[in-house]
Amino acid sequence: MIGSSRSIWREGKVVHVIDQTRLPHHTQVKQLTTLAEVAQAIQDMVVRGAPLIGVTAAYGVALALQAAADDASLATAVQTLIATRPTAVNLRWAVEHVAAQLATVAPAARAEHALLLADELAQADVHTNEAIGEHGAALLQQRWQALGYPARLNVLTHCNAGRLGCVDWGTALAAIYKAHAAGVPVHVWMDETRPRNQGASLTTWELAGRGVPATLIVDNAGGLLMQQGQVDVCIVGADRISARGDVCNKIGTYLKALAAQAHAIPFYVAAPLSTLDWGIVDGVHEIEIEQRSPREVTHISGRNEAGEVVTVQLAPDGTAALNPAFDVTPAVLVTAIVTERGVVPASHAGLASLREPALA
Ligand SMILES: CSC[C@@H](O)[C@@H](O)C(=O)COP(=O)(O)O
Fold first, then answer.
1. Rounded to an integer, what distance in angstroms lies between the CA atom of residue 134 and that of residue 63?
2. Domain 8-124 = CATH 1.10.287.1080
3. Which Pfam families match (predicted)?
4. Closest residue CA from atom 1 of ligand 1
């Protein structure tokens, strides 16, 4: 039973999350009460999506401090959480933000303060994503208008950049929700997103729950659909964006951006400013790409006809498999980046214009 429309919420000293490894067949809430449980949940992708793992990690710091709030415990919590997943910079940003604030608080007051800081981040994420949604919806509306108001606006998205990847709303999907609510006849092509299938198991569930027309496609279908004129616009999320606008997102995003460029289809990236890594310029060469278990490639999970969720093996025994979880789309392939502060070109100048003065 879900007690909230949010992906994460707190009751006292217990953090509740929707267990995304169980979706779409089971909607279950998992309770997290310790640093170790939070770290495991992030690593196992019980929670996933850049903004959500950031907020979850902030709660992880707070839970760690309930046991011991000295400087050493704080440092251990920070290190443990940052090591869980290396690519999405929101995680590091959130943990370092909370740790910096707590460093100025007396250890005796830290445990309670940390919970409130994490609550603040969770709340801020909701407002941020709603703002991203407004800006992104305006782009979708403009595209619909530019195409002469077709009976449906076909939007392609990859992975799950929805409310499940955030506290609420989502990033790319926030734009779709807002456009849908405003009367734009959006229809979403949902890439299945091998190997973890976030599109097939999460975006399908999420969009169906909000009544947005959508169709699941295999990852390799996007090129054909673009060639046939069946994709009007692409919008995806991001896990890290370099200072010059290179976009790191779920593996497969780059190929879609290449195909979109070949067919002159706008390719938008929606992300909060916490996804920007100002310390990295060349995203293609500098962003660490998480390598996950080969088992995620050689095996697949789903529900069988008896209604049981099972994992089966796809490849022969002993098959070597490589599983990079993300790729980087160079800025030149990105039409624009949609943030909570507005839409900017994927360029150094464009992104820098968002930085001042509040983030200085
Ligand atoms: C709003 S979530 C944006 C991104 O984090 C999303 O597109 C993505 O790549 C998530 O990857 P995941 O491996 O599922 O955490």
1. 34
2. no
3. IF-2B (PF01008)
4. 161
